[in-house]
Amino acid sequence: MTDRITPFFQSQMSLPSRILMVAVAAALLPAVFLPIWKITLHAPQYPGGLTVHIYSHTVRGDVQEVNELNHYIGMKAIRAEDFGEFRFVPFFILRFFAFAALAALVARLPVAAIGYIDFMIFGAVMLVDFQTWLYDYGRRLDPKAPIHLEPFTPKFLGTTQVGQFHVTSFPDWGAVVMLLAGLAGPVILVYEWRRQRAA
Q1: How confident is the model over 44-56, as a mean pLDDT?
Q2: Three-class SS of residue 141?
Q3: CA–CA separation, 133 vs 105, rounded Å?
Q4: pTM of the entire structure?
Q5: pLDDT class of 28 with cuts at 50, 70, 90
Q6: CA distances (Å), 169 to each of 8, 53, 105, in order?
């Protein structure tokens, strides 16, 4: 097996794979500025819903209105400065962009593989971090709040009932772009493996 794997990772990437890596790099760069996740509160008194968009570096949208509602149930206010992740997430996205661009330039599979592994670890850590963030916000409620709710854990994906609100949490365009970019990794590996076995 090693007599196949070693030459495989020492070989040059084909032109189609390099073009795909260029596309990955081009897709990752806008993810720094696109909303990555969105949380929307639906209730009869808010027919259009209240939405908070989470970016790689900040939160935007109906943050003030949501914070006013959070105050009544004793939930902490959402403030961008409270999230240390916002200081380094954009740099990680730029790091993945650099890996993809470098892999396309030097046409080496190890560079692409390292970048892909780095990307997958980052994605897993961020999902755990996001769920921890939701757990903390839903469980650490002020007992002196005007409206008493039992502690809860919002879902990072799907719908959670909070009082009279339906709270939905789904990926936004930035996450979709990064997911599609991440799918390029196994596509390239499978394509290159089959190409070299057929050679």
Answers
A1: 91
A2: coil
A3: 38
A4: 0.88
A5: very high
A6: 41, 10, 38
CA–CA distance from 129 to each of 20, 105, 119, 181 (Å)? 30, 33, 15, 21
Model pLDDT for residues 51-108, shown as the tens digit of each residue: 999 999 999 999 999 999 888 888 899 999 998 899 999 999 999 999 999 999 999 8
Eight-state DSSP code of residue 108: B
Tokens in use for 127?
């999902």
Is residue 19 helix, strand or coil? helix
Q: Is the pLDDT of residue 13 over 60?
A: yes
| % of the chain beyond a pLDDT of 70 | 94
As given in the structure block, the two tokens for residue 156 are 């990072």
**CATH topology (fold) of 22-190:** Butyryl-CoA Dehydrogenase, subunit A; domain 3 (1.20.140)
Spatial distance between the Cα atoms of 131 and 167, rounded to a whole number of angstroms: 15
Answer with the residue of higher pLDDT: 199 or 134.
Answer: 134
